[in-house]
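can u do me a favor
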């Protein structure tokens, strides 16, 4: 009788006894392989491992949601879990059919989708990578630091804070569940057909106002990803599916992109949401911001999406700030859905002009914001001009990445992104900016130092305490009129044309 090899589970049967010389010379394919690190204790078969992973993954789903292993399944069947990430059923396999085949480590479905994109980076590294527990499993959650509801690591939390009032928490949950039920009924089906732009045009004015009012209140987390797809019209046409698979296969090949583009994407991967659970390696249980590209599922997904889009749009390819928008989509959607929505936003909603060389359209938007401030808040506009403070000093990131680079609190940036998906334009950015300035215009006019004024302008989003009241009242009441700005720009264009 052989002695159990290292890592052999205590409740498993011992290895088979070798009774002949022929058995000794044959590859030991009948002996169960040692369990790798992170494998669920007591697992004796593939089914047991899969059941344990499925149970632990479903434990962190929101009430009423289910886990799925099919990345292309209905968006409603894989809702964000309690820490803000999407949980899919982990898949794993033992390569026991080939002699002396290496053991495959359990891989989450989201990370498996980006295996081809990360193959180049993995092959270039000569250091050994320890097996990692599946995303959403009990081992993965045990090593994860405390996170908020969006999946960001909470560090330096005061230990002397009083515990939250259970009645307040219960009331907030009841309100959110009620709003979620209303959204599910309003969407019509799992594809949100009633929210499609072509269907919205057939709705009466009262129903369209109701939709706008509910979006201003914020789309509930369980249906947010599906609502984005429906509002932008992505679900109306699956034409990009086949092209996406072809581009993804090409993007995973080293040298498929210009070296300058590929290098810039790699640099920005580690800068994108470094404190989010999707972008942290399993060794980061202390909540540090270091990213390990070999163990972070978010890095592989983001790399694949950005490289695929760089092949899709060869004029834009890649520009800094695109990584934050793409990363946000990956928090709520599968990689394919995120790519289709990313293309729809940039090409269908005409946001790609922000990332063109020279960024002339971006400067045009910033000048439009200055014109809107002069029209709505004339006294503050005069004060800002007297201090030589231009809108580009504090609002550039609001337009380029919608405040997702931490220039805005994440809840505010996501709520503004909800409105962008509804209106298919950047008008919500104008309204949010004007509403922020309007709330603090008296204090801003009292500051006469330019550096201090700039500091206060950048802190405006963080000063909003009641996000619901801000969007439902302040932002909703702002009226943006860019008529004069557009007329002035048309005259300038005609003047330049005449001079040429």
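np, heres the sequence
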């Amino acid at each position: 009788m052989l002695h159990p090899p290292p890592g052999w589970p205590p409740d498993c049967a011992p290895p088979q006894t070798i009774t002949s010389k022929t058995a000794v010379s044959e590859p030991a394919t009948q002996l169960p392989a040692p369990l790798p690190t992170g494998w669920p204790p007591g697992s004796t078969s593939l089914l047991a491992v899969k059941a344990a992973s499925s149970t632990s993954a479903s434990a962190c789903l929101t009430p009423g949601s289910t886990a799925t292993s099919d990345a292309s399944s209905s968006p409603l069947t894989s809702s964000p879990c309690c820490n803000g990430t999407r949980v899919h059923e982990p898949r794993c396999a033992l390569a026991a059919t080939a002699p002396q085949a290496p053991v495959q480590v359990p891989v989450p479905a989201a990370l498996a989708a980006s295996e081809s994109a990360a193959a180049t980076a993995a092959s270039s590294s000569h250091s050994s990578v320890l097996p990692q527990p599946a995303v959403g499993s009990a081992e993965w959650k045990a090593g994860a630091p405390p996170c908020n509801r969006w999946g960001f690591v909470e560090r330096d939390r005061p230990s002397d804070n009083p515990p939250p009032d259970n009645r307040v928490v219960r009331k907030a949950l009841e309100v959110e569940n009620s709003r979620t039920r209303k959204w599910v009924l309003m969407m019509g089906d799992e594809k949100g057909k009633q929210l499609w732009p072509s269907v919205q045009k057939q709705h009466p004015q009262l129903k369209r106002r109701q939709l706008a009012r509910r979006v201003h209140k914020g789309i509930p987390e369980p249906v947010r990803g599906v609502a984005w797809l429906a509002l932008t019209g992505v679900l109306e046409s699956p034409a990009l599916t086949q092209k996406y698979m072809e581009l993804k296969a090409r993007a995973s090949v080293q040298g498929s992109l210009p070296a300058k583009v590929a290098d810039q994407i790699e640099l920005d991967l580690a800068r994108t949401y470094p404190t989010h659970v999707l972008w942290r390696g399993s060794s980061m249980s202390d909540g540090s911001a270091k990213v390990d590209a070999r163990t972070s599922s978010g890095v592989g997904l983001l790399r694949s999406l950005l490289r695929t889009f760089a092949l899709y749009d060869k004029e834009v390819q890649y520009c800094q700030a695109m990584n934050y928008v793409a990363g946000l989509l990956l928090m709520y959607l599968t990689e394919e859905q995120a790519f289709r929505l990313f293309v729809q936003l940039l090409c269908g909603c005409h946001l790609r002009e922000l990332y063109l060389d020279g960024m002339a359209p971006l400067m045009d938007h910033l000048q439009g914001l200055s014109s809107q401030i002069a029209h709505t808040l004339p006294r503050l506009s005069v004060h800002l001009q007297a201090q030589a403070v231009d809108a580009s000093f504090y609002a550039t990131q609001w337009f380029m990445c919608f405040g997702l680079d931490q220039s805005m609190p994440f809840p505010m940036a996501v709520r503004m992104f909800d409105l962008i998906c509804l209106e298919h334009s950047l008008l919500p950015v104008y309204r949010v900016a004007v509403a922020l300035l309007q709330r603090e215009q008296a204090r801003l006019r009292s500051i006469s130092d330019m550096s201090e004024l700039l500091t206060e302008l950048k802190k405006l989003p963080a000063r909003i305490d009641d996000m619901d009241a801000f969007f439902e009242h302040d932002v909703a009441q702002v009226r943006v009129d860019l008529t004069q700005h557009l007329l002035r720009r048309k005259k300038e264009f005609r003047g330049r044309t005449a001079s040429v």
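Residues 15-130, 282-291, 493-500 have pLDDT under 50 and may be disordered. hope that helps!!
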